[in-house]
Design a protein that fits this description.
7-stranded mixed β-sheet, single chain, 125 residues, mainly beta
Length: 125
């Protein structure tokens, strides 16, 4: 019964920044890893960034490392994706996700139990 809700998507020019938020609600939330995925039309859903609930360890896709930062506020059951130096190729629907069965940060979407509805991020050139 836990639900995740993303917010913060929108339209931004290349080189700009955007911050996405994900909030868990609707039940007892217990997660080992919180993550962000994205999916552009015609593409597979791809892992963007993940963070460990326990120690804050992070992992990023090569395409976003050094530009994006994932963070979390455990007490609020909330996590964020700070996106800087945005590029047109970052345009996609961004989904937050979480899993409650392993501490390992995995990139496979099928390993995540909880998903948000997605928020559109559009980067203009």
């Amino acid at each position: 019964q836990v639900q995740l809700v993303e917010s913060g998507g929108g339209l931004v020019q290349a080189g700009g920044s955007l911050r996405l938020s994900c909030a868990a609600s609707g039940g007892t939330f217990s997660a080992y890893v919180m993550a962000w995925f994205r999916q552009a039309p015609g593409n597979e859903r791809e892992f963007v960034a993940g963070i460990s609930w326990s120690d804050g360890t992070t992992y990023y896709a090569d395409s976003v490392t050094d530009r994006f930062t994932i963070s979390r506020h455990n007490a609020k059951n909330t996590w964020y994706l700070q996106m800087n130096s945005l590029k047109p190729e970052d345009t996609a629907v961004y989904y937050c996700a979480a899993e409650d069965h392993t501490e390992e940060i995995r990139v496979a979407a099928g390993l995540y139990n909880y998903w948000g509805q997605g928020t559109q991020v559009t980067v203009s050139s």
